[in-house]
Design goal:
Number of helices: 13
Oligomer: single chain
Radius of gyration: 22 Å
CATH class of the largest domain: Alpha Beta
Number of domains: 2
Strand order of the largest sheet: 3-2-1-4-5-6
Number of strands: 12
Distance between the termini: 49 Å
Strand content: 15-25%
Shape: globular
């Protein structure tokens, strides 16, 4: 139910958005930021997130301040953690927020929402959180009843319902500084790449989201027909870099180079932004490609496609479930070494890539 004008604080001077999740999740909150900025152009919009995801929104022009929770605080002892959490609450209260929007489902986010002192505190009415305190922490709760049918972007935007916003900006977005594009050009030129190129991100932190190394190498070799250099990207994690090394060892395409582990997140954004095509598995870089409107071929296994498909019309999803039976996503052991994308044939990915490169 929309909030009546006599309840909605006016003017809206400061808004805090809370989302404590992973990199991809943070990208999918940017439509909320964009919509709030359009609706309240004179308001200062802040965000609270985990420190490791800060780069995703660091250069977003609509954000006034970014507040972080460092998950390493607890490793330094309960005393240090309490000191940092107390300082964070003090900082948030000093901002005198008119509205706090809690997109997270953790008790920690509810406590922060309550202690912020904001006039209007909006959260989701999660069935698992129906308790006195959750209701006390938020004075407006939005139903999640239809979330099972909505993409994560649409789920996030639904929290704005009480504000009765007429025009929603549903685009995801990512920004990076000019220095990162300069770095992109320098690094690629050092590898002999000065024109068009493709980006392939074969890796994920979870094996079950990855395709076979052999099939990835076969795809890279087949793409030699396009006469375009191929840039492989991955996180600095040793497991991911080792996977890239194995794929390279299997390749015969002389025009493939690796930037695995060599780029910051915003440098990676610059590389993806200028690519002719991005090919990758279900991962944060895939969501980055969608946000940057880079043509995208995304490979999916037992993931909830409704929630996590690339949020872009300039994309094609190739789902392993179209080639073999997959287990329900909720039944997956995320630590399994099994690669459920194995069912995807190379030709399906190759044909999708050709469609964008023709």
């Amino acid at each position: 139910m929309p909030i009546s004008h006599d309840v909605l604080p006016t003017p809206i001077k400061r808004i805090l958005l809370i989302k404590l999740r992973h990199h991809g999740d943070m990208l999918l909150t940017t439509p909320v930021i964009n919509t709030l900025h359009r609706q309240y152009p004179d308001a200062g919009i802040d965000i609270l997130l985990y420190k490791e995801t800060e780069a995703i929104v660091r250069y977003h022009p609509a954000l006034a301040q970014i507040h972080v929770i460092d998950r390493s605080w607890k490793k330094q002892g309960i005393g240090h953690q309490l000191q940092q959490e107390t300082a964070l609450i003090k900082t948030l209260r000093s901002r005198h927020y008119d509205i706090v929007i809690n997109l997270a489902d953790q008790w920690r986010s509810a406590i922060i929402t309550y202690l912020s002192g904001a006039t209007l505190r909006i959260g989701f009415d999660y069935p698992k959180r129906r308790s006195f305190f959750w209701h006390k922490a938020h004075n407006r709760l939005v139903s999640t009843e239809n979330h099972g049918r909505l993409h994560t972007v649409e789920q996030n935007l639904s929290i704005l319902a009480p504000l009765d916003i007429a025009h929603v900006d549903s685009r995801t977005s990512m920004y990076y500084p000019a220095a990162d594009d300069t770095h992109r050009q320098t690094v690629l030129a050092s590898r002999g790449i000065t024109g068009d190129y493709l980006v392939i991100q074969p890796t994920s932190r979870w094996n079950y989201k990855c395709w076979d190394d052999e099939k990835m190498a076969e795809l890279i070799d087949a793409l030699q027909e396009q006469n375009l250099p191929i840039v492989l990207t991955a996180a600095p994690d040793k497991h991911e870099r080792d996977m890239i090394g194995k794929i390279l060892a299997l390749c015969h395409n002389p025009r493939v180079v690796s930037l695995a582990g060599e780029l910051t997140l915003t440098q990676l954004a610059a590389v993806i932004d200028h690519a002719r095509l991005f090919i990758g598995v279900d991962s944060a870089p895939m969501h980055m490609a969608a946000a940057l409107n880079t043509p995208c071929v995304a490979l999916f296994g037992p993931t909830k496609l409704t929630f996590w498909r690339p949020w872009s019309e300039n994309s094609t999803v190739i789902w392993a479930g179209n080639f073999a039976e997959l287990p329900p996503p909720d039944d997956i052991d995320t630590s399994t070494p099994q690669r459920y994308l194995s069912a995807i044939p190379v030709d399906a990915v190759l044909q999708a890539a050709r469609g964008y490169l023709a």
